[in-house]
């Protein structure tokens, strides 16, 4: 059983070498009396920014630290090989929390979802049909209170979550602008995902002025993925009674001390509602979300771009690459295709 192991707790910026590939043995059958556990073969794994935070020794966080010497864990798609759980049987496909290894025994499959629709790419359950699709759906429809005609800005807009938020906003009839870190991504936003405008934030000396260019009358909705300087620039450009959904702050995750935000006073003067959310609190909406998104995918109304890394060994570099923007679209790792 090939595994990706965290060597030690990480301080500072994580590196691929903080993880190591090890090969152990696993009996491909659950031990006698494994009530409620399932043994799975992992097929696709999801690389997520929050996972690097879990490499630190965390106290007081919404996620637990990984255990040094043990496999990394994260979201993935897998096939059930053996089951002691009444809801799962051999051959079922599932998505949810699993290990970064070839085979995993999931002892508490409470947040594991059985995959019912297999006429879409299976890897989609690591992204658009899994946690990231739900994040975009909840963040946009539940937190942003969107209306037709709203002026919407999305940072890290070409990523797993951002590309979907932009498309949801376009379907509703909003004006949508996204920021991303390369020309290739800016082109994707405009030409593939149908954003009205997009810009490369790395080429803008003055982010506040750049936003003023795209939103001369201000922003109604900001979908926050990045934090730091971008948040400050956005705050200065928000409209009266506008909304900010705080989904993530990737620019802050690996800093010893998060940067300060200076323009918070704008929340008062512009009567802005700024609200953080965690997708796990909204899993009860998953069936409703599937009802909406599956016809959109099948009917070509929503498209999804994935960046696929081949083989478990490629996972550490793929994960670290999120922080330099190496991924173009949702970062997926293929462990096995069936
Ligand atoms: P992405 O697929 O968007 O990958 C991360 C991207 O962030 C990179 O490709 C890079 O793109 C950009 N980035 C990296 N470092 C910086 C930086 N310092 N400044 C600006 N941009 C940077 O990730 P996801 O779509 O999976 O996640 C987006 C955000 O949503 C993250 O902050 C994540 O933690 C959060 N999240 C929150 C959830 C919740 O429940 N609240 C659930 C899931 C995700 P570029 O080339 O454009 O710089």
TrEMBL record:
Domain Alcohol dehydrogenase-like C-terminal positions: 160-293
Gene Ontology molecular function terms on file: 2-alkenal reductase [NAD(P)H] activity
Name the InterPro entries for this protein: ADH-like_C, ADH_N_2, GroES-like_sf, MDR_fam, NAD(P)-bd_dom_sf
Boundaries of every Oxidoreductase N-terminal domain copy: 2-114
SUPFAM superfamilies in the record, alphabetically? GroES-like, NAD(P)-binding Rossmann-fold domains
Name the UniProt key words of this record, in alphabetical order.
Answer: Oxidoreductase
Q: Which protein, by its recorded name, is this?
A: Alcohol dehydrogenase
Species of provenance: Camellia sinensis (Tea plant)
């Amino acid at each position: 059983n090939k595994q990706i192991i965290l060597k030690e707790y990480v301080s500072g910026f994580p590196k691929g070498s903080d993880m190591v590939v090890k090969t152990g043995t696993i009996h491909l059958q659950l031990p006698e009396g494994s009530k409620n556990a399932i043994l799975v073969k992992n097929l696709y794994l999801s690389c997520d920014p929050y996972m690097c935070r879990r490499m630190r020794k965390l106290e007081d966080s919404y996620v637990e630290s990984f255990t040094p010497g043990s496999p990394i864990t994260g979201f993935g798609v897998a096939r059930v090989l053996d089951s002691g759980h009444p809801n799962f049987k051999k051959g079922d496909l599932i998505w949810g929390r699993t290990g970064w290894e070839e085979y995993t025994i999931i002892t508490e499959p409470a947040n594991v979802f059985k995959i019912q629709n297999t006429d879409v790419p299976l890897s989609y359950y690591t992204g658009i049909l899994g946690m990231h699709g739900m994040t975009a759906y909840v963040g946009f429809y539940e937190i942003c209170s969107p209306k037709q005609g709203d002026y919407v800005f999305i940072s890290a807009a070409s990523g797993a979550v951002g590309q979907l938020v932009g498309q949801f906003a376009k379907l509703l009839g909003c004006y949508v602008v996204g920021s991303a870190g390369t020309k290739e991504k800016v082109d994707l936003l405009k030409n593939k995902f149908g954003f009205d405008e997009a810009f490369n934030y790395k080429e803008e000396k003055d982010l506040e002025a750049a936003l003023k260019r795209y939103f001369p009358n201000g922003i109604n909705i900001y979908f926050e993925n990045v934090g730091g300087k971008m948040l400050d620039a956005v705050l200065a450009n928000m409209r009266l009674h506008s909304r900010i959904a705080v989904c993530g702050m990737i620019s802050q995750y690996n800093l010893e001390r998060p940067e300060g935000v200076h323009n918070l006073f704008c929340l008062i003067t512009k009567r802005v509602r700024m609200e953080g959310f965690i997708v796990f609190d909204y899993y009860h909406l998953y069936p409703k979300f599937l009802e909406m998104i599956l016809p959109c995918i099948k009917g070509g109304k929503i498209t999804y771009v994935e960046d696929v890394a081949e083989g478990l060994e490629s996972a550490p570099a793929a994960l670290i690459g999120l922080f330099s923007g190496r991924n173009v679209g949702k970062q997926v790792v293929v462990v096995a295709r069936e």
